[in-house]
Amino acid sequence: MRLDASQGMAQLTKTLTAFREQAEDERATAAVIELDAGHADDAGHAEWPGPVDVHTVNKWERALRQWERLDAVTLVAASGACGGPAFDLLLAADVRIAAPDLRVTLPSASGGFWPGMALHRLTHRVGVSGARRLALCMAGAGALDAEQARELGVVDEITDGTTGALDDRLATALADRPARGDVRLLRGLIMDAPGTSFEDALGTHLAACDRALRATGTEASTDTEAPTGTRGER
Known about the structure:
3-stranded mixed β-sheet; single chain; 5-stranded parallel β-sheet; alpha/beta; 8 helices; globular
């Protein structure tokens, strides 16, 4: 889907929800959004989220969460001047590709960093130190260019913005994606890892391993013979 990121929050919520539902109905193994918010010289959608109430914000956050948990690999390719919603969508995607002309305007409210769930995702993506730097020191400092966004972890890589180059990169990024049904499981294990101890995570990972073994038919029998000479034998 090609998405105009300059739309308001309510319309973006409807558009993202419809696309996610389409991907679910079609049992897609990958879902790609191409963000387009105008020329790189434009200011982008800086006034984010604009004149909305908290209920509209809640609907947008829930739509993002459902997109983030889609049982398909999600990829966002961004170009031009991308503001608040682009930042949200970039952080919620599995793979994030920027064109060389990308300019990311950090989401702000009342002169400070917009305290939406992008802040939570940002911490997962770039760590506490990186999130603090962006939220406390760089909010309101203007736009990040493509290279800055890559260095800070907002995007994964930069690809030539031509259609052919982008299509080639999308194909490469999605070539070895996990099978449908495994995506949500793997993503959940990764996202839970930073806040879960090894001991607490072990059971969940073992259950996932058991499922994988059963799916491939490589599970060995658990029946074993008791060794001779054990206690109690006569």
